[in-house]
Amino acid sequence: MRVDCHLHTVHSGDAVTTVERLAERVRAERLDVVCVTDHHTLRGAHEAIERDVGARIVVGEEIRTGAGEVIGLFLTGRIPYVLPLADAVRRVREQGGLVYAPHPYDPARAGLGADGLAALHAAGALDAVEVFNAKIADQELNRRAARFAEAYGLPGGAGSDAHDPEGVGAAYVEMPDFDGPQDFLAALRAGRIVGEYRPHVGYLGR
């Protein structure tokens, strides 16, 4: 299974990928699962499910908190904007979702950073770490995330973080099939990270 753990549609507000273009790129990149993780909305994920983009959809949301961004995966409802980190995590967990830390060390974006990652892990509230983000040019930042995940025994994910069609599939995990959140984590542990740096094209925001 090829799983892109982090990407955006036009519903993010700072992205240009329509659901129709997402379907085209899913076919071109031979993706099996895409985690649609728009900023502060689930509309893109729900639209992708309704229109059948040719891949299984994991409903997610990239959530800005007071301590930085986290992604909730396997969500059934939207998480409000700029909650304290603990409250956002609690709301993800109440839905049976997973807490995934995107681009944690990238200074250009609102990742959790070393302190935020450590605090979240110490609280038993961190399920997976993005160890390859295709929009990060400095690969040492991805390697730092990978070292953290390895040191603390956390599964590592990979995401294109695509905000445009050209970016979709720039990073993904080759992993076994899964059924539900906990099975997803187990499959992620057995996965292989595939990715390349692919800068934004036609990108509207940060």
UniProtKB/TrEMBL annotation:
Classification via InterPro entries: PHP_dom, PHP_domain, Pol/His_phosphatase_N, Pol/histidinol_Pase-like
Domain Polymerase/histidinol phosphatase N-terminal, chain residue ranges per copy: 3-67
A Pfam family it matches: PHP
Residue ranges of coiled coil: none
Name this protein carries in UniProt: PHP domain-containing protein
Species of origin: Actinoallomurus oryzae
Highest classification ranks of the organism: Bacteria, Bacillati, Actinomycetota, Actinomycetes, Streptosporangiales
